Amino acid sequence: MTDNNSDHKEATLRPYLGLWHLVLAGVGSTIGSGIFVITGTAAAQYAGPAITISFLIAALVCLCTAFCYGELACLLPKSGGAYSYSFASSGPTIAWIVGWCLVLEYVVASSTVAVGWSSYFSDLLASIGIHIPSAMAGAPLSFNKAGHLIFTGSVFNFPAAFIVALVTLFLVLGIKETNAANIIMVYIKVGVILLVVFFGVFFIKKENLTPFIPPNQGHFGEYGWSGVLRGSAVIFYAFIGFDGVSTSAQESKNPQRDVGFGIIGALAACTILYVAMAIVMTGLADYRTLNVANPVTVALSAVGGGLDWLKPLVNISVVIGLGSAILMGLYGQTRILYIMAQDNMISPRFAKINPKYRTPVWNTIVVGIACAIFAGLFPIDILGELVSIGSLLAFVFVCWSVIVLRRKMPDAARSFRVPWSPFIPLLGMASSIYLMFTLPSGTWTRLVIWMAIGMIIYFTYSLPRMKRAQCAK
Model-level pTM greater than 0.70? Predict the structure, then answer.
């Protein structure tokens, strides 16, 4: 596109991404604090060494949904992802619910990764004698076991907010620059995972993996098989991101062919890496010691001196690599808001593309500020559970959209089709709903509050705005 084109033509997203770019984007947005942080806390609190089974269960649920995303992305190659599919299948109200859930998935997921990044960054600085005061690198707000809001004594998680600001700058600069940064960071963090797995396997202690499924403690979700299931719901958050490939449709060179295969490829690669890493981490250290924000380095420390040489490399690599998960999470959110604005759901400013950078600059800055606030105020466990439940609800509607659109648009070309439909979509819906019900009750309370706020905005602002736009036509 030349500079002589009209402003209208200039203000569009740039189709730049090929299949390999999409796979790397999916891996980049998926592999984040889920593997480097949530794995340890879920093993310590819920599943023990059987967290590996939790990962496999979550992966199977994701696979059903991934097939659905693949078909819908071919049918409706728009950057709105699950929001756009729900709009086409079920109308604006359901689409708004899904879009509001996706704010939880992308913004809060990026905030969660930023909190994990902060812990590893602080640990890295401490290793060279620079100590960030805990009040400046911790969440000031949390919830106790009774579900009440408490103050921790910290002021704000400044490192977490800093990395969000840096990533937001990359997103403003353009898709080409964003993709180049993501590729570098993906190679780095996948490389360090492979190093930990390859060298760590020689130090696994059998006693750390026995019993593989710790006995239940008398309550649902506290170890035993119920703990494995709750663990799969909690670490389900670790798989959030593969669906973000669908938000790249309008910046893909061949979305009908590449988006579906990009989603499946990213999910397969991440599942293999997750299971391998979980086995090594719980084999190196007693799972009860992994309830920390930097469980990988804790697991390496449990070995003694044998793997000390890996610790600084892990910290450096994780600090760099987690940035790609934040990058792609915020990227996905900005593209969803871009489509919602085009549908008159939200302010048209979210759909305005900067003619110089060819990115939604104002949209990106707003998303970055929101993410930085979440990351600076809340702890990682609260954020992670919110992401899981919001994403699972969105996945239910994605699977449902396949069934509906097969009936509404039976003759439409689909270069990628869900096998054994409607069985696979129905299985994806049922398993997602089941995992939602295994999450703690406090997470449900926060979801209800979040959705209530969203519906108030929809009925008082978005729906009237859409009606005015329709009348204007």
Answer: yes
b/e code 237-273 from CB counts within 10 Å (16+ = b): bbbbbbbbbbbbbbbbeebbebbbbbbbbbbbbbbeb
H/E run at residue 273: helix 255-284
Both tokens of 393, joined, read 């609800």
Backbone angles phi, psi at 122, to 5 degrees: -65, -40
Q: Are 319 and 117 in contact (CB under 8 A)?
A: yes
Percent helix, percent strand, percent coil in the chain, to nearest 5: 75, 0, 25
The residue written with tokens 């907010």 in the block is: 161
- What is the DSSP-derived secondary structure letter of residue 309? T
Q: What radius of gyration, in Å, describes the C-alpha atoms of the chain?
A: 21
At residue 31, φ and ψ (nearest 5 deg) are: -80, 105
**What is residue 204's DSSP assignment?**
-
Distance set, CA 317 to CA 113, 162, 391 (Å): 14, 18, 27
What is 15-60 written as a DSSP string?
Answer: --B-HHHHHHHHHHHHSSHIIIIIHHHHIIIIIGGGHHHHHHHHHH
Instruction: Give me the tens of pLDDT residue by residue for the chain, a chain 473 residues long.
Output: 334 444 444 456 666 677 778 888 778 777 765 677 778 888 999 999 999 999 999 898 888 988 898 888 888 877 678 898 899 999 999 999 999 988 877 888 788 888 878 887 887 788 788 888 888 887 787 766 666 667 777 889 999 999 999 999 988 887 777 778 778 888 888 888 899 999 999 999 999 999 999 998 888 888 999 999 888 887 876 787 777 777 776 677 777 778 778 888 888 899 999 999 999 999 999 999 998 877 888 899 898 777 888 888 887 777 877 788 788 788 888 988 998 999 999 999 999 988 888 888 999 999 999 999 988 887 766 666 677 788 888 889 999 999 999 999 988 878 788 989 899 999 999 988 988 887 778 788 888 988 999 999 999 999 999 988 888 76
Fold for domain 19-438? Amino acid/polyamine transporter I (1.20.1740)
The type of residue at 246 is: S
* Rounded distance between C-alpha atoms, residue 279 and residue 469, angstroms: 54
The conformation of residue 210, written as its DSSP 8-state character, comes to: S
